[in-house]
Write a structure and sequence with these properties.
Layout lengths: L2 H4 L6 E2 L5 E2 L2 E12 L2 E12 L3 E5 L6 H8 L7 E6 L2 E2 L5 H6 L2 E3 L12 H7 L9 H6 L1 H21 L15 H14 L4 E5 L7 H18 L2 E5 L3 H7 L2 E6 L2 E6 L1 H5 L2 H8 L5
Parallel strand pairs: 5-10, 5-11, 8-9, 9-10
Antiparallel strand pairs: 1-2, 3-4, 3-6, 6-7, 11-12
Helix pairs in contact: 4-7
The chain binds adenosine-5'-triphosphate.
Adenosine-5'-triphosphate (ATP) binds next to strand 4 and helix 2.
C-alpha cells in the first residue's frame, strides 16, 4: 500500500470534482489463487470504497481477470478472505454473489444474440424476480405487477444509456460498440451496488470509447454505483479512476491514485513503459 493509501480517512473523502468516496465496500485480504501449479494471484490485498471507480491494470496474464472472477464468485481462492459490506463472505456461487449486489460484464461479450435488446436487459433482473411459476399461475395479478415494475426499471436504463432506437433489435445484428452498451445495460438492470467491468473499451474505436467513458461516469454519478474495472487503455484508466491497483505476475506492484501510479517506478518498468493497447 502506498503512503497515500495508508493515510486515507476511514469515512472517505470528496474528490477534486466533488464526488463523494465513502467507506470501504469490499476488501480483498491476502488473496491467493492457484490453478494446479500456476499461481494466478499471490497474496494480494486491496479495498474498493463506496462510490469510487477503481481500476485493476497490469500486463497480459498478470491475474486481473482472475481477481475479477474471485470478486464475482466464479473462482474461490485457496487462501485469503473476501469482505463485502462489513462482513466476511463465505464461499458462494456466482448467483448468490449477484444477489448480494455485484454485477459484471465480460471480456468477451456474453449476450443472447437472437434475443432483442430489451429481453437481454430483462435477463439482468432475473436474480431479483420473486414470483415463481406456480405463484404466477395462482396469483396472476401479483406476477403481472412484478413484471411491470421490472419493465419500468429496464425502460429507465434503456433511456439512460440512449438505446431506445434499438430496443427491439436482436443483439446479433448490432455493431460491437452497441453490444457492449447493451451488456452494460444488462448489468445495470440488476441495480448493483458494485459493478465489475472486464475491459469495457476493448475493441472499440475512439468514438465508442468516448461514449463508454461518459456512460461509466454517468452511472457512477447518477446511480452512485461503485465500479471496479479492468482496462488496458491507459488514457481511459487515468481519466476515469479514483484509484488504481497494478498487478504483475499475480502480485500487486502498485496501489494508489493515478498520479501515484504514473510515477511508480516498478509500475513503469513492468507496464507503463511498454506499449500495451
Ligand atoms: N481457468 C484457468 N485455468 C488455468 N490457468 C488459468 C485459468 N485462468 C487463468 N489462468 C492463468 O492464470 C494467470 C492469470 O490469468 P488472467 O487471465 O487472470 O490474467 P489477466 O491479467 O486477466 O490477463 P489478460 O490481460 O490477458 O486478460 C495466467 O497465467 C493464466 O494462464
Amino acid at each position: 500500500m502506498t503512503a497515500a493509501a495508508q493515510t486515507m480517512p476511514a469515512e472517505g473523502w470528496t474528490t477534486a470534482d466533488g464526488r463523494k468516496i465513502g467507506p470501504v465496500l469490499m476488501e480483498m485480504k491476502n488473496i491467493t489463487l492457484r490453478f494446479g501449479g500456476v499461481k494466478a494471484i499471490t497474496d494480494i490485498s486491496f479495498d474498493i470504497r463506496e462510490g469510487e471507480i477503481r481500476a485493476i491494470i497490469g500486463p497480459n496474464g498478470a491475474g486481473k481477470s482472475s481477481m475479477l472472477n474471485v470478486i464475482s464468485g466464479f473462482y474461490v481462492p485457496q487462501e485469503g478472505e473476501v469482505w463485502f459490506r462489513g462482513a466476511r463472505r463465505p464461499p458462494m456461487k456466482p448467483y448468490e454473489v449477484a444477489r448480494q449486489g455485484i454485477a459484471r460484464t465480460f471480456q468477451n461479450i456474453a449476450l443472447f444474440e437472437g434475443m432483442s435488446v430489451l429481453n437481454n436487459i430483462m435477463t439482468g433482473r432475473l436474480t431479483m424476480m420473486n414470483t415463481n411459476i406456480a405463484q404466477q399461475a395462482l396469483w396472476w395479478g401479483r406476477a403481472q405487477r412484478e413484471e411491470d415494475e421490472h419493465r419500468e426499471k429496464v425502460e429507465k436504463i434503456i433511456d439512460f444509456l440512449e438505446i431506445q432506437h434499438i430496443r427491439k433489435t436482436p443483439v446479433g445484428r448490432l455493431p460491437y460498440g452497441l453490444k457492449k452498451r447493451v451488456e452494460l445495460a444488462r448489468a445495470l438492470a440488476a441495480e448493483p451496488k458494485l459493478l465489475l467491468l472486464d475491459e469495457p473499451m476493448a475493441g472499440m474505436n475512439v468514438e465508442e470509447k468516448e461514449d463508454m467513458c461518459r456512460f461509466i461516469l454517468d452511472v457512477n454519478d447518477e446511480f452512485g454505483t461503485t465500479i471496479a474495472l479492468i482496462e488496458h487503455d491507459m488514457g481511459v484508466v487515468m481519466d476515469l479512476s479514483d484509484r488504481v491497483v497494478v498487478m504483475d505476475y499475480g502480485k500487486k506492484i502498485g496501489d494508489g491514485s493515478p498520479d501515484d501510479i504514473r510515477s511508480n517506478q516498478a509500475v513503469i518498468d513492468a507496464y507503463l513503459g511498454v506499449s500495451h493497447d
